[in-house]
């Protein structure tokens, strides 16, 4: 079996969560470029549907979630950062086939099974968080993925669907041969509202200890700074922290507790991200996907409101260059 980053990492691990239309190869590379590798250990790709991947007409469309640019791969190698493919679905055979393909034809370091996405259109299919109420199928999916993979397999999940069932559900997952388990401290019906319950996440670690299972337990939910992350690792006795929405509060999350104040540093990062996106996807992905990121780079800058209005009207790199040049012309001394 290939090297197992779950076993090789002895200290606390910090991870960037899988997020749809967010954690593609370009954003992952940008985050690595502005992060301290001592504080960023694992990156996850966008979650990919196994049913679509195993369908002849769907593979090309969904497989773009597995794209790894050469420049990203070089940076992963240089920083010794692990990259994990996350997959979802309901058919164990498709998990087996997808895991086999990822293991044999890509450079990912692990495979993660999405049992946590709370979106209603996904739940209706019986996938992701819905698997919490289908423990037998969930176990079959895990076993099929492990059988098809030469890479370490992990799971990301929640603490329940409509009500908290941490002990029953997590104990069930811990009977499998997964290497890592990320627990988001909300039930499915909460989506992203309310507060994540870290005491329930701590229960997962305690259960692993009681069952004498050498499975890394990662906490997820509402961590907005590196300092808070390290504090939670100690407070709740965890093996690591996964960051999701926190990266939208500060793209420099894995580098410092606060984003740089200098406009040039912020806008250079925005331009770098846009350049990577434009060169990588060209006509495969629409420019509008980038617009969800603009705010995170400019928040707090002088004239941020007017700048954002201009950025939202852009359609390509030329437009972006013009808007940013105009911003600096007006905001002299930034």
UniProtKB/TrEMBL annotation:
The keyword NADP applies. It comes from Plebeiibacterium sediminum. This is tRNA-dihydrouridine synthase. Belongs to the dus family. It comes from the Bacteria. FMN binds at residues 86, 156, 184, 244-245. The keyword Phosphoprotein does not apply. Residues 15-325 form the DUS-like FMN-binding domain. Its EC number is 1.3.1.-. CDD domains: DUS_like_FMN. Pfam families: Dus. Catalyzes the synthesis of 5,6-dihydrouridine (D), a modified base found in the D-loop of most tRNAs, via the reduction of the C5-C6 double bond in target uridines. It catalyses: a 5,6-dihydrouridine in tRNA + NADP(+) = a uridine in tRNA + NADPH + H(+); a 5,6-dihydrouridine in tRNA + NAD(+) = a uridine in tRNA + NADH + H(+). Transmembrane segments: none annotated. The active site is at residue 117. Gene3D superfamilies: Aldolase class I, Putative flavin oxidoreducatase, domain 2. Keywords: Flavoprotein, FMN, NADP, Nucleotide-binding, Oxidoreductase, RNA-binding, tRNA processing, tRNA-binding. InterPro entries: Aldolase_TIM, DUS-like_FMN-bd, DUS_fam, tRNA-dHydroUridine_Synthase_C.
